[in-house]
Amino acid sequence: MSIIEKAANRFEQAKGEITRPLKITPEPRSSGEQSSNIISGEQSSKIINEHNTRNPDRQMIAQADINLARLHQLGMITPDQGKTLAAQEFRGIKRSLIQNAFIKGAGAIHHGNLIMVTSSLPREGKTFCAINLAMSIATEMDHTVLLVDADVARPSVLRTLGLKSAVGLMDILLDEKLDLADVMIKTNVDTLRILPAGTSHRHATELLASQAMSSLLNEIANRYPDRIVIFDSPPLLPTTEARVLASQMGQIVMVVEAETTTQHAVKEALRQIETNSHINLVYNKAKAFPGGTNYGYGYYD
């Protein structure tokens, strides 16, 4: 029985609803790296000028303190809260992802440490899962985490964490003068950094498919050998950005909302990312499995 068929059976059964300190120094550009863009010449200059004059209140934030007590009240994972139900569940979810991220030799996964969290449709809990997964990995002794808000049309990572909007991913792709180190936010969780979505743009899909994005992903993936990067992606079915991102990810986590997401939506979403051979499903907002808890986890092949 496939993972989708198992999930379908659980749809019918389930009821109700659920959701080493490290100093990072400024990161210079890699030697020989060039910023490239699919938009060039006069059009490129016009777009960058638009970008620089739009949203003047958007800031570069070097350091931000996440309100961990507030996150705990929201039922989310924090590094010092102990053995909560969510913490236990995400310990299980993260383990195979971490193992896959650092496989060596012939079985190594290209960009295995780049993990995209997505869903078929909006409001299935992908941001909740992306933040919790990042927080859980941040408690590891041997790894650091970069959480990227890649839902560039409707970013919600900073808002969920109680932080102000800031310059980020889109701004790096639009402005060659910006470096990753300029926009990465350090947090009061020593092993967690955040890359905001940045300024929204009508050419978001093309920018995510550009050589500039590929170069940035290579830099993010390879700069620190112990780093895992979690991308909170747009949902797959209503957007094109998620499919573009998926083509450059090493692993994908797809969140499926219990009793709400249809088999058809799940299958169609999986069809769009089927070229990636490392897809994992998280069954979210379920609480009625006999002997179960709040999440289910499976490997899709």
Number of helices: 12
Widest β-sheet, arrangement of strands: 1-4-5-3-6-2-7-8-9
State the fourth-level CATH superfamily. Answer: P-loop containing nucleotide triphosphate hydrolases
> What Rg, in angstroms, do the CA atoms define?
19 Å
Calculate the terminal CA-CA distance, rounded to whole Å.
12 Å
* Overall CATH class: Alpha Beta
SSE-based structural type: alpha/beta
Mean pLDDT: 81
The portion of residues forming beta strands comes to: 5-15%
**CATH topology category name:** Rossmann fold
Outline the fold blueprint.
Layout: H1 3-13, H2 41-53, E1 63-64, H3 68-73, H4 85-101, E2 114-119, H5 126-138, E3 144-149, H6 157-160, H7 169-174, H8 180-183, E4 185-187, E5 192-195, H9 204-208, H10 211-222, E6 227-232, H11 241-246, E7 251-257, H12 263-272, E8 279-284, E9 296-300
Parallel strand pairs: 1-4, 2-6, 2-7, 3-5, 3-6, 7-8
Antiparallel strand pairs: 4-5, 8-9
Helix pairs in contact: 4-5
Keywords for this structure?
301 residues, Rossmann fold, 12 helices, 15% strand, globular
Structure description:
The protein is of the alpha/beta class. It has a single domain (3-19, 66-300), classed as P-loop containing nucleotide triphosphate hydrolases (Rossmann fold), CATH 3.40.50.300. 36% of the residues lie in helices and 15% in strands. It has twelve helices and nine strands. It has helices spanning 3-13, 41-53, 68-73, 85-101, 126-138, 157-160, 169-174, 180-183, 204-208, 211-222, 241-246, 263-272, and strands at residues 63-64, 114-119, 144-149, 185-187, 192-195, 227-232, 251-257, 279-284, 296-300. It has a nine-stranded mixed beta sheet, sandwiched between helices. Residues 3-8 and 10-56 have low confidence and may be disordered.
